[in-house]
Amino acid sequence: MKKSIFIISLFLISAHLSAQINMVSKKIFLDSLNNETTPEKYTYTRVITNYSQKSVRYVVTDFYKNGRKKMTGATLDRDVMKKDGEFIFYYKNGSKESVVNYSEDHKSGKEINWYENQSKKSEKQNIWDPKTKKSKTLILNYWNEDKTQAITDGNGDYEETDNFITQKGTIKDGLKQGVWRGNDSAKKTSFTDNYDKGVLISGISVDENNSKFSYSSLSEKQTGKKAQKFR
Question: How far apart are CA 15 and CA 171, in angstroms?
Fold first, then answer.
């Protein structure tokens, strides 16, 4: 009889704790582009730990389907991701991919990246100016997968892949300089860009139908539309 009462009590305590956890946290399902989706079509899950509590920052953790962490950090808005503070990103096998600092959803401060085998990939310094709303990234040091250092103290040759975009070129004083070539697998385009001290001054992209589009700023490149000029 005592054993039965103990088991029932344990069950009630577990149920109460589970209810508390569910009450303060929220779990959502995300597709490969981090858009919210259904449990049948998800690629990742996201848990906002203190969702129901009024807070300045909310702890967010993304998980792969295998249950391992993909990302962990904090957001200023519980319903819209606005990264703030240190974020740690992980590969699917559980090894660390990068540590990035954010300020109001903008990269700000030191950033370190690793290859999947945990050899160091790069060291960067992100600069965000909240007054001008402009940001830039200084690439300080970079190592190839064979551990040879290609960029030292902000100078050398660099190749990067960011989501669907792969590009390579020269880094001078931490910034992109001269001709950079690459491709965007999502848009199915290749491109050639010209940089001066990290600023894109001109470029041309070519799509799968060999149609060409020229641009003179990063915003034009991203939107695919020429900026309207006023006299």
Answer: 57
63 lies in a domain? no
Does residue 118 sit within a domain? no
Stretch 92-115: mean pLDDT = 96
Q: Is residue 161 part of a domain?
A: yes
Q: What do you get for the CA distance between the two ends of the chain, in Å?
A: 90
8 Å CB contact between 150 and 157? yes
Whether 27 is in a domain gets the answer: no
- The total number of structural domains in the chain stands at 1
Q: What's the pTM value of the predicted model, to 2 decimals? A: 0.77
- Residues in contact with 175: Cβ distance below 8 Å, sequence separation at least 6, in sequence order: 136, 138, 139, 154, 195, 197, 198
**pLDDT at residue 162, as a whole number:** 81
What is the domain range of residue 169?
154-226
* Pairwise pLDDT comparison (170 vs 21), residue with the higher score: 170
Name the amino acid, one letter, at 13.
Answer: I
